[in-house]
Design brief:
The protein is built from seven helices and 18 strands. The chain has about 350 residues and is an alpha+beta fold. Strand 1 and strand 2 form a beta hairpin. The two termini are about 20 Å apart.
Amino acid sequence: MGHKVIYLLTFLMVCVGQSQKRYVTRTIAFYNVENLFDTANDSLTFDDDWTPEGKYRWTMGRYQKKIDHISKVLSEIGAEVTQTSPDIIGLCEVENKQVVADLATHPNLRNKNYGIVHFDSPDERGIDVALLYKKEVFLPTSFASHRLLLYKEAEERDYTRDQLVVGGILDGEQMYFIVNHWPSRSGGETRSRPHRIAAAKLNRRILDSLSKHNSEVNIISMGDLNDDPVDYSLKQVLKTDGKRQAQTQLFNPMEQLYRKGVGSLAYRDQWHLFDQFFFTSGLLQVVENRYRFWKAGIFRPRYLVVPHGKYKGYPFRSFATGNYTGGYSDHFPVYMFLIKEVRD
């Protein structure tokens, strides 16, 4: 598919005075898909609960329903603007490459021709991060999985997810994507905070390494950070900024949403915005023939929201209080748009 055809799919028309400007629009999405396990027992990980005989009675029927659901969500993110699915999709809580392939080849997504970048992480539960990309839009030129080394007391390793880095060419522009799933708040926010600080430091090292030889390179980091945009790991370690200022180095568009009370998941009646994007400041600049950031948001159509009961308004998840509910995920997906003006 040539660029002309792609542009027809992703034009955004904006009226300025008496004239119209046309933009090519690209959607970047991230989704924590909540325990997307296959039904097979992997002897190397603690996935026994996610088998037909396990705790969650994870049958092929339930697995297929999950694939149906998640692929539907992915097919619709950003489509109100672009009339198509996202161009780049970061995922977390996927068990292996096969479950990602099952998503990409589902009828909801099959004709989008997604490529997959995935590495197995050493996470004890066996969950990984991955990247889907439209082959007609993005050409990967490099990919790496960066290990996050964590330790419990007595110097015992605490195995967690790697940080995935994919570099490539997006419609002729060099771009890097980092996909994250930082350590959880298990054991309490304060007790687990050092692990997320370590994750932020690893992310900082990756960012510095990528920009060492080209200070103007565009890098988008995304993921479930298990911290909010105003927490120490973001504001103090990475030094993200929620305001577009001259000195901004890493812009986090999710901070403004968070300060308005918007969240992507809820826990004990408190909303959090753990699912975030932050990126280098070059994407805030208006440069001819180059992509720039337009806006970000949370994708929460009615079918993703619990309609009534104790958890009214929460994300409609697959399991609640240990019982199968047949929903989607305990997180809402997030997205951001890149735009580039098209001149005739």
